[in-house]
Amino acid sequence: MHAPSSLAPLALSMGEPAGIGPELALKAWLARESASLLPFAVLGCPDLLRSRAQALALSIPIEVSNFEEASDLFHQALPVIPLKASMRDEPGKLDPDNAAAVIEAIDTGTRAVWQGKASAVVTCPIQKSNLYAAGFKHPGHTEFLGALAQELSGKKAEPVMLLAGPDLRTIPLTVHIPLNEVSNQLTGERLKTVARITHQDFQTRFGIENPRIVVAGVNPHAGESGTMGKEDDDILAPAIKELQAEGLNIKGPLPGDTLFHARARQSYDVALASYHDQALIPVKTLAFDETVNVTLGLPFIRTSPDHGTALDIAGQGLANPQSLICAIALAGELSQKAKQS
């Protein structure tokens, strides 16, 4: 007998139909008891999920549902909230006609959270190139969610990508840009904005009263007093001093090559990295299957696995659901904290 959850269910978007998203959603439901997952409802196509479950020999009852009934249904069957747009079930083969449903799932899940019908949105991986071909105008998930947040709240949103693993949390100050553009886009204002959002969300979402933040330098040895680049001294250091004057517990810039070993990691709660790979390589190396992508700076909770659509193994039963399971678990944990605060 399962006690009813006092929280609204989590909204899980199915992601790219040709990828491993449907398989991950199915396997996550199978792990609901062992991983102590809170109820979630999948935004997707019930027939596609039934077809994928049958192809993978997964015995999973799948029921059409809505957010109001999903929590009660969850322990007996996987609740699926159908979309208006259709999805074609061809694992490994991208189809531009699927783009509308992928976008609709994210949009519907986000609006459900905003309306209080869902507690958080969890997103399975999308294939951005397939969405671009259909006219999608955002660089990725995070930016799309920021635009939705701004539309719903009427306030400008500053989404921040946090990679949260069991032993390390990192945030890239610049994200999906070429490496030779980092110096142009790594500004003091960007650092201050991200650090303030991080400080606030670590207090309110993660319950850390005085979050310890460190900043990884952009150049080798954090520029070594300007002999290996000026950005650390001219851009990062002045912004960090301003943030310290505001009361933030922040240090840096520190050399990136000594910031991520075990002893160093004990000295901070989150590391702000200057560019994408500086943030993602260490956290994925330490815990690829357990790391979760969390979007800070939004007026709602969003988590996601930290990997892509894996088209090459889609439909073969090889996908590891652990990162999605961790994403669902963290979304539930953050939702519970939000309700208690």
Describe the fold and architecture.
It is a single chain. The model has no long low-confidence stretch (mean pLDDT 93). 48% of the residues are buried. The protein has 341 residues and is α/β, with parallel strands linked by helices. 39% of the residues lie in helices and 15% in strands. A 12-stranded mixed sheet has the order 3-4-2-1-5-12-11-6-7-10-8-9, sandwiched between helices. The chain has 12 helices and 12 strands.
How many H/I helical runs? 12
Helix content: 25-40%
Beta-strand share of residues: 5-15%
Mean pLDDT: 93
Q: Order of strands across the biggest sheet? A: 3-4-2-1-5-12-11-6-7-10-8-9
Query: Uncertain runs with pLDDT below 50, 5 residues or more?
Result: none
SSE sequence, one letter per element:
EHEHEHEHEHHEEHHEHEHEHEEH
Euclidean distance between termini CA atoms? 28 Å
CA-based shape? globular
Number of DSSP strands?
12
The structure class reads alpha/beta
Q: What is the CA-based Rg, rounded?
A: 20 Å
Biggest β-sheet, characterized? 12 strands, mixed
